[in-house]
Each structure stands twice: as C-alpha cells, then as structure tokens.
Design a protein that fits this description.
The chain is α/β, with parallel strands linked by helices and 373 residues long. The protein folds into two domains: 69 residues, Arc Repressor Mutant, subunit A (Orthogonal Bundle), CATH 1.10.10; 243 residues, Rossmann fold. It is 39% helix and 15% strand. The protein has 13 helices and nine strands. The strands form two sheets. A seven-stranded mixed beta sheet has the order 5-4-3-6-7-9-8, sandwiched between helices. α4 crosses α6. The model has no long low-confidence stretch (mean pLDDT 93).
Length: 373
C-alpha cells in the first residue's frame, strides 16, 4: 500500500532513499521475522528515527503487525522459507569480543559515564563502546597495533583509550578540536598510566610539522560528506611515515545515506589500496536528545530492550603505496559544517550538550564559529 513519506522524512531529497529502505526492510522482515526495531536498524539501512516512523506507518496501513515489540509481516504477505545466518560469536564483525577485550570493554563503560556530552557543533556522534573495542581487536588481529605508533583523528568515541587500555601500542596521539574532550582523555590517560597524549587541534589549520610522518597507523571517523572526508584522510596520510604499507582506517557509507562514489574516488586519487571493508561494523550510539516528542512516543511502542543504536557504517582499511599523495587538503571551517551543526548554530537548544554544565562552552564556541565563518 502507498505510504505518505512526508510523515517519515524531514527533507524531500530523502524520499527516494526511504522508498528503497521500505523495500529492503520488508525483504529483511520476510526472511527473519519476527524481528525487533533495533534488529532492523542494525541490519538494514536508514537512521533510527526515520525507520521508527516508517515502521509505524507500515503498521497503520496493515503491511506489518506488532506483537509484544516483535514485528512481522501481515498475513497477506508470504513468509520466505529460509533464513540467513550470522555468526553468533562475532555478529558478522570478523573478530569476537572475548577474554581481555571484555575487560577493556568493562573499563571503557565506566570511563564513558563521566566523558563530556557530545556536541553537534563539532559534528560529534560517538560510536557504541563495543564498536570502539571491536576496532582495537580488529587492529590487533591485522597486525596494526602491537608496537605501533597510532594516531587518532577526532576521538569523541574514546577509541584511543580503548587502545591504551589494551597496552599493546607503542604510543597513541589524539588530535581533536574539542578542548573538553582533550582534557578528559589526558586526565584518564594520566590516571591509568597510558602511553597516550591528546592535543587540541583545528584540522582546517593543518597539523604541527613535528607530527608529520611519525605514525604507523591512523584512525579517523569523519563526517560522511566529501570535504570533511578528504580533510581527515589527507591529515591521516600526512601523519603516516613515508613509504608503502602504512595503514589507515576510516568509516564511511553511512546507512542513512545513498552510497556515493565520491569517497572511493578520494581514496583512489590519493593512491592508496583498499584492503578490507567490513559492512555494518561501525555502530553509532543512540542519542535520545535527537528525538522529538512524537518520535519518543513511537519509541515507547517499538522499543524491544535490545542494545540501541542510531545508524551504522562500513569499516575500511587501506594501505599506502610508494605513490601515495600526502598533501593536506585545504578547506575552511564553514565548508566543514554538517547539517546537524548548522541546525545548532540556528538554535543551540538542539545540541545535546546545551542543557548541561557545558552550556557556556557551547555558546562561546558558537560565537567563535560564527566569527570564523
């Protein structure tokens, strides 16, 4: 049955994407039913809030039925007689979280309780704690961690602390624009005696020469639009030691956007070799502050109690070559501002950190950003 997509999307440009999302969700449910809302968000595509609205509309028009927070096709749709299976140990993420990684995850959960609240002014959207630990486990498995000098570009996820807690890296250096986060990471590193140092840096102004070509591996999780992606990639490449087989990790192809060749073209232009791409590896944490009153009411109806998330991306690993281009991409702050940042610049009350002890920081940062832009 036809759907009124105006009740699902927030911009007309999203309509075609969520038509495809509708089709993909129905196919997923047909194979795996009964399923929960969070299973759909984790395994299909779309952002949590728009998928929630879509499921609500599909239950209203009779395409789906909901029984005790489990979702199935209505009786008029035939169920498929096979089910795809995902590894129960790693959940399709290649590396299971076992042994010492459980302890790292436990420690990270405690640390996160006192971390600064994310701000959209810097387009912060932390991943889930288990995603940070999975990254560390994957780096170790791939030989990209033990005895390595690691650079982390932007770290509202606290992946640097997860790396430090494992105690395998030679050194870890973080670059982040958020002074609150830098102070927090440094205080934890000092308390835990980690080989880790964070620096406050606006990457649109480049990085100090002392850090050029000093690292074996870099990790970055840039805003999923071309200019921020190319800036973070170019900074990472400038940080890596010269020569081939230096390693970069990036997350892109977010589940709430159409796939774009632009990201791959940027990597091709830089002459690096993509070696690994793991779908749905990077899971972004659920932020209740992004929900309006109507969405929160829908969440009460559909929330099954599973681990929450907002959306996911692929994890991509690449290696440098002797021809890799390392020149830093030039971009100004205004070109880096994402949709969420622009919304907050117009109305700071939409920022997660605004209604907290960090309100003064948010307002002063807004003033500086307006002046710069």
């Amino acid at each position: 049955m036809a759907l009124d997509y105006s009740k699902i999307i927030e911009q007309e440009s999203e309509k075609e994407f969520y038509k495809k999302t509708h089709k993909n969700i129905m196919e997923y449910i047909q194979i795996h039913q009964p399923v929960t809302f969070w299973q759909i968000v984790r395994n299909v595509q779309g952002s949590d809030r728009r998928v929630l609205r879509l499921l609500h509309q599909l239950t209203l028009n009779g395409s789906l039925r909901k029984d005790r927070k489990k979702i199935s096709l209505s009786h008029r749709f035939k169920r498929k007689d096979f089910k795809e299976e995902v590894c129960t140990k790693c959940q399709g993420k290649i590396i299971p979280i076992e042994g010492k990684f459980h302890q790292v995850l436990k420690e990270l959960h405690k640390i996160i309780l006192t971390k600064p609240i994310p701000t959209f002014l810097f387009d912060q959207r932390p991943v889930t704690p288990i995603t940070s630990v999975r990254r560390v486990a994957y780096l170790l498995w791939r030989g990209d961690l033990e005895g390595k000098n690691i650079a982390v570009i932007g770290d509202d996820d606290l992946t640097s602390l997860a790396i430090g807690l494992l105690g395998k890296a030679k050194s870890i250096v973080v670059f982040d624009i958020d002074i609150r986060l830098v102070k927090f990471i440094n205080s934890v590193a000092k308390r835990k005696n980690l080989k880790l140092k964070a620096h406050t840096k606006d990457l649109t102004k480049g990085i100090p020469k002392e850090f050029y070509a000093k690292f074996d591996v870099f990790l970055a999780d840039p805003t999923p639009s071309p200019k921020p992606f190319e800036l973070f990639t170019s900074i990472g490449l400038a940080l890596l030691k010269s020569g081939s087989e230096r390693i970069g990790y990036l997350s892109f192809f977010p589940s709430h956007q159409e796939k774009s060749m632009e990201f791959q073209n940027i990597l091709n232009k830089r002459k690096v070799i993509i070696t690994d791409m793991i779908p749905k590896f990077t899971e972004y944490d659920f932020l209740p502050s992004t929900y309006n009153t109507n969405d929160l009411a829908l969440l009460q109806k559909f929330d099954s109690g599973d681990e929450r998330l907002s959306f996911h991306e692929n994890l991509t690993r690449f290696e440098t070559t002797k021809n890799t281009q390392r020149k830093i991409f030039k971009v100004n702050l205004q070109q880096m501002l994402g949709k969420a940042t622009k919304r907050v610049m117009k109305n700071p009350e939409k920022d997660p950190a605004y209604n907290s002890e960090d309100r003064k920081f948010i307002l002063s940062t807004m003033k500086k950003m307006k002046f710069k832009s």
